[in-house]
Amino acid sequence: MAFIHSEFISAARRFAGRPAVCWEPGNRLTYGELDSRSNSLARLLTGRGVGRGERVGVMLPRTGEAIVAIFAALKSGAAYVPIDPGWPADRVTKVLRDSCLKVLVAGDPADGMDSLVGSVVSPDSDEWKQCMEDKGAMAPDVAVGGDDLAYILYTSGSTGTPKGVCISHRAAAYFANWARERFSLCDGDRIAALAPFTFDLSTFDLFSGLSSGAEVHLVGDKTKMLPPLLSKFMQDHRITVLYAVPSTLVLMLARGMLARRDFSGMRLILFAGEVFPPAHLKAMMELLPNGIEWFNLFGPTETNVCLYCHVPHGSVKESPVPIGEPLPGTELLVLPAGDEVAGAVERGELCVAGDGVMSGYWGREDDDARLWLDAPTMPHGRAYRTGDIVEKGGDGRWHYLGRKDGMVKIWGYRVELGDIETCLLEYPGIEQAVAVKVETDLAGGELAGFVIRKPEDRSGDFDEKGILKHCRTRLPRYMIPRNVFEVESVPLTHSGKVDRRKLEGMVLAARDRESTGQGG
Hints:
By secondary structure, the chain is α/β, with parallel strands linked by helices. The strands form 6 sheets. The protein has a 9-stranded mixed β-sheet, sandwiched between helices. Strands 16, 17, 19, 20 and 21 form a 5-stranded antiparallel β-sheet that branches. A hairpin with a 2-residue loop joins strand 22 and strand 23 (413-416). Helix 6 packs across helix 7 and helix 10 (246-254) crosses helix 11.
């Protein structure tokens, strides 16, 4: 079993002098430099006690140093745990406490953060600079197996505590190798890397791209949020491969940026993370060169990509494109409504088995009974219950219908509405809270909160700004509601459940009033 970074090491030998990672403004590392620097840092990490089975946190901006740290963690035998420096301190603290890191690689750790980890290594330290001077350092002699963890990605949790998705070397290599071969990645490619390292889309850039000799161009946060800058970035860097959430692509379409740029070098666009509105997808395909191949990739963080669908030109109609067929070696079961025994049904909850599926959630072994379906005839004897409802079409391809729980997607990020509701309930004076996602004119939709105040706290003015400020200190930016509305009661359906459709309608009505200048 080859470990996930073995293909990168092989590529570094073949393409030592070629650019591997490029980032703004005008920085780059060659394959040889990335290999050498990660070897040096790996030796520093082993000197700090890092070894097989340990975990190394990487809390750095999206630069070459972060990728050096990721490969160094892997070369030391550890799993890397990416942490976004832009996360609120409360979320960072929860992840640090949960993951039990041996070392945290961070530029500027907050006060008290070092007490939650074994030790901290900073790119600004003399120690880092000295170890980077050893250009000929060899990687530590550490053997890892296919079942050893390669990385842990933290996702939203319904109780307000992030959950760590554990991905083994076998699972990581399964997707990376498939993607490299299926999409014919090569040393002539230039990949636009938009995903943060905390998001599973980033593993395509790191392990498929950097094992093929391609140039990986890290797109800055400001650039990827501003359509004029992003479209110019792709033109200036002659990007050939793009892997993004549809919301990012729709922004460029809505602002008219696609028709103004030269994308003649683009050959491949992959999209994942959320449903691509058919009208927008069709418009993009008509605007961009016909030579581009388009693919819809589907799968939760727990499985990475488990299904994919080629989208030929002229094939997009009024319905969302299919999620397609499973990757080779991936097997699917569909669990009918009511949780009967899975079988040859064509509509129900998607269950996935195969080498690409996660090992489990970090430190949450008690969740196993709920997460897994016993499947003795399938790979590894079990299938992961995704919570996604799917249906097989007449052509044999699978279609995504929605979720069976309170999970939604915002900008491709998976969000548990319960996570937001927990945060709202932590604000003083709140008795009940409900969060909803609303499909609006904003790309990717928006989140909104509804709260009921405790009787003793209803006399004063409703402090929406205070509640949103509270949310900003506890939730990642993509999980913060655009508005929080006060209601006297939460509408219920005939079955006694929260009537989320009615709440969504209240948000849309508020948006209509804003657009006509009627205010609240």
